[in-house]
């Protein structure tokens, strides 16, 4: 007697999560150390020590009713102010506490944004491969996700197909850079092109097409590559940020939405974000961790650890003949499977205790996602399993 | 360019929250100590000391990646197990970790439940007066809230009108006891009657009508009155619990859903709750505070403090000629306004720096809600203001 829609969702329930449970089952049989679970983006790096210190400092020095109580639905004013100032310094924009809404992670933030803007049957465009949950987030509010097919050579956005996909129902575009699952970072020129197309199309249809930047991986970038800030490119942008990866706090569900004051109908939009936060049942982002992140804006996990993981695994896979774009950020590899059927390929990988996620979950069949946010030793130990897997297809 | 629906919501945005902001404005003019803000259910009692101790213990003794990382969408297994065992002991039921889903407070829990069960145009019944947010929570998933009108003498559910309101579109009933805003606790016999009616009507329409018990105030009960446990009354029940009030942690957004294994389609329902938690963007209840509440199941704030507040304010209001049902639980009084127009009455109260919430926000015009989860001294100091307010209408 659950709803019809949920019946379908339950039956197709997330492959990634199913894999997570499968990993735990295999670990019980073969021992944790012999299972190579590359299925979930659960960071293995510990949060910086300053996180623990801040929690203790706050508990010892601030009033418990303030720290654990309700505040404005958009979050503590001082926290939003600190974040705004940090962003201003880092990205040369001009935000204040009025431009920030604290959220229950980036997933919560995206839902709040989409609730605020979507009318039934509105379309939201994203670039394949993409985080599969976007489809649900849009559907939650009657929206429909439209995929722009991948450019398999670079996994950069296919801008020609993008422009063709926009129509008078297009309400928003979701981008995600550094990208899950490819690790690609959109360049300055890509963002300029996207902004130009959106400006032109907004004018053409007499509407505001929003750009939503899903940014849980912003700080996870390698080799000195810059991650451009979309508020500098397009005024009708929402940044959906999360501290899940930068501070290794995914379970705490803490992030924010940032909006520039130049956005069309700015005040109405901000009011909508607050109301959406309330009525979707978030009410507010978890209070203690709002205060914790405000004290850790300059901290982040050591990205070099992920970089070493990337290099070790990437080089090995390429040597084995995998086709793979070298990731510039995030902590995923997205190689082409040796057979067309990516689900079957993942099933076979499981025989070697390798847990990978089929690219189909990201709107990109024929590929697999490998989350390398695990220990270096785990990756080292997994290399022979990848070798055996590759040999199977030679 | 926000959505049409949100445009309406924003313009009518929560009176309670507007009042909260108004209180802060008045406090800046007249000084915090001269403004009597009875508008928000933000507990003034500090969390038990054991909460702070548990946070520190967990940070010092458990792995940071475990404490702050992703877990199953339904929450940590050991936390769910501890909660299930606590409920079993307290209420004589037979739950395990499989019967519990951790949630982002009760508001998050209600949204997860409604997402799981509602088809478009399904009806959800509740008893006026009721927490106004229920209307939004139902609407989020295409459901329609139907009110059963109040019994003004007792604010007990009007069971005759309840039965008449049920039809073949009725999917669920939300109850809230101890009640916000009346403080009424539903008795054993009331719950038996509700269960009987729902069983009969479910059979009549060949469906499962769910009973959803919104329980943020379960532990806030006075004078030894028992709050019966609905899982002992009706198998198709959801308990939506929150630690916001029992541990004074409303900002932390931590609660759970409990379901009995006897519920129709139990496994499918639990799977739906997990998927809903994920796709609504909650992903999981905040991780550290899951672990904290599991260590504080036996703790609660000192309810006697609220009881003293109730007695002081209730006795004073009755002496002034206010008609008011004496609350058995929660921390609200819900007296009849001296004039029919409750919004106007609240406007007038504001002239005495008294911030009250119109009963219209709870589907019960002509009444006002007074949240007495403030300090005893604040209530003492507010009594002359109530006296002046009453004199105005003599």
From TrEMBL, chains A, B:
<comment type="similarity">
    <text>Belongs to the class-I pyridoxal-phosphate-dependent aminotransferase family.</text>
</comment>
<protein>
    <recommendedName>
        <fullName>Aminotransferase</fullName>
        <ecNumber>2.6.1.-</ecNumber>
    </recommendedName>
</protein>
<dbReference type="InterPro" id="IPR004839">
    <property type="entry name" value="Aminotransferase_I/II_large"/>
</dbReference>
<dbReference type="InterPro" id="IPR004838">
    <property type="entry name" value="NHTrfase_class1_PyrdxlP-BS"/>
</dbReference>
<dbReference type="GO" id="GO:0030170">
    <property type="term" value="F:pyridoxal phosphate binding"/>
</dbReference>
<dbReference type="GO" id="GO:0008483">
    <property type="term" value="F:transaminase activity"/>
</dbReference>
<dbReference type="InterPro" id="IPR015421">
    <property type="entry name" value="PyrdxlP-dep_Trfase_major"/>
</dbReference>
<keyword id="KW-0808">Transferase</keyword>
<dbReference type="InterPro" id="IPR015424">
    <property type="entry name" value="PyrdxlP-dep_Trfase"/>
</dbReference>
<dbReference type="InterPro" id="IPR015422">
    <property type="entry name" value="PyrdxlP-dep_Trfase_small"/>
</dbReference>
<feature type="domain" description="Aminotransferase class I/classII large">
    <location>
        <begin position="34"/>
        <end position="381"/>
    </location>
</feature>
<keyword id="KW-0032">Aminotransferase</keyword>
<dbReference type="Pfam" id="PF00155">
    <property type="entry name" value="Aminotran_1_2"/>
</dbReference>
């Amino acid at each position: 007697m659950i709803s019809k829609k949920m019946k379908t969702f339950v039956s197709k329930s997330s492959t990634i999560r199913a894999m997570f449970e499968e990993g735990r089952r295999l670990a019980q049989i073969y021992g944790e150390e012999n299972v190579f679970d590359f299925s979930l983006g659960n960071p293995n790096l510990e949060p910086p020590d300053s996180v623990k210190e801040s929690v203790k400092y706050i508990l010892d020095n601030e009033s418990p009713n303030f720290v654990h109580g309700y505040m404005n639905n958009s979050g503590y004013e001082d926290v939003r102010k600190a974040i705004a100032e940090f962003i201003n310094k880092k990205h040369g924009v001009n935000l204040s506490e009025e431009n920030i809404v604290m959220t229950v992670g980036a997933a919560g933030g995206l839902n709040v944004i989409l609730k605020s803007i979507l009318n039934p049957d509105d379309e939201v465009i994203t670039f394949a491969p993409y985080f599969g949950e976007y489809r649900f987030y849009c559907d939650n509010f009657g929206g429909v996700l439209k995929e722009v097919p991948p450019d398999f050579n670079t996994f950069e956005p296919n801008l020609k197909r993008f422009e063709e996909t926009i129509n008078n129902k297009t309400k928003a575009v979701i981008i995600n850079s550094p990208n899950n699952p490819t690790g690609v970072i959109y360049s300055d020129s890509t963002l300029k092109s996207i902004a130009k197309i959106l400006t032109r199309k907004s004018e053409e249809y007499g509407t505001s097409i929003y750009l939503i930047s899903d940014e849980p991986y912003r700080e996870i970038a390698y080799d000195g590559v810059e991650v451009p800030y979309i508020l500098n490119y397009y005024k009708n942008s929402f940044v959906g940020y999360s501290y899940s990866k930068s501070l290794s706090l995914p379970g705490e569900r803490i992030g924010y939405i940032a909006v520039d004051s130049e956005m069309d109908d700015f005040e109405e939009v901000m009011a909508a974000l607050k109301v959406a936060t309330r009525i979707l049942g978030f009410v507010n982002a978890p209070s203690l961790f709002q205060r914790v992140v405000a004290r850790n804006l300059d901290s982040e996990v050591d990205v070099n650890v992920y970089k070493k993981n990337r290099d070790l695994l990437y080089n090995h896979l390429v040597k084995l003949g995998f086709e793979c774009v070298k990731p510039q950020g995030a902590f995923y590899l997205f190689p082409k499977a040796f057979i067309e059927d990516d689900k079957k390929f993942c099933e076979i990988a499981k025989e070697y205790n390798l847990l990978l996620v089929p690219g189909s979950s990201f709107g990109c069949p024929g590929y697999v996602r490998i989350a390398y946010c695990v220990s270096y030793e785990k990756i080292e130990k997994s290399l022979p399993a990848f070798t055996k897997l590759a040999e199977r297809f030679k």
